[in-house]
Amino acid sequence: MNPVNQQKLEQEHQPQAIAKRLAKLPKRQNISDAILGGIDGCVTTFAIVSGAIGAGFSASVALILGFANLFADGFSMAISNYEANKAQQEFADNIRQTEAEHIKQVPEGEREEIRQIFQRKGFEGDTLENIVQTITQNKALWIETMLIEEHGIQSRPPEAVKAALTTFSAFLVVGAIPLIPFLIPSFDVHQQFLFSTVLAGLMFFFIGMLKSFVFAKPIIYSGFSTLLTGGTAAGLAFLTGYILRELFGI
């Protein structure tokens, strides 16, 4: 490791630095919501455009369909994300209430659950009993421990509104990019579609690169992987539009 990075890492793991970092509530990361919204926005919008051009429709029709889909599907996706996260929050709250009631009604049984949870982690003897005693002395800590260890639920669930807004914003911003060429009247429809294809490809590759930075994946591989996914979806839409045009003589 680079000496500078090693020194920085050691400084970040000094007792005072650790205490300061742990004193802050963990921030909810919305990177996955942004990536999901961006990819789906670009795939969906460009697929609509590809299908329209493949079917032989004019640029104006492709533009209208693209923008209509952009807002409708973006809103639908944001609401779905909101409802999913809201349901997760409500589920976690329900489990908290259930565990609180169990602690009230059968405290010894709940203590035994804590004991076996940490016994499975390798603790035993006096150390195990001290852990059980420490956790069960604090009801809030007791409930949160059960929430995480028994039910596998995050103690701090996602913020539903923030997640939905992030998804919607990413969907609109990235999804609008493939539509830009159709706003340029000096291009004919084939030039507009070609330009749109290039922009969509760049967006797919850029989002893939963004994933690589966030999740420490190889940049080129991640970029091309996302590009392949988006390109395949758009290709299927174009092919579908073309086949239907030929079959029905549109």
From TrEMBL:
Protein name (record): Membrane protein
Keywords: Membrane, Transmembrane, Transmembrane helix
InterPro entries: Ccc1_fam (IPR008217)
Bilayer topology annotation: Multi-pass membrane protein
Compartments, as annotated in UniProt: Endomembrane system
Main location: membrane
Transmembrane segments: 46-72, 163-184, 190-207, 219-244
Keyword Transmembrane found: yes
Keyword check for 4Fe-4S: no
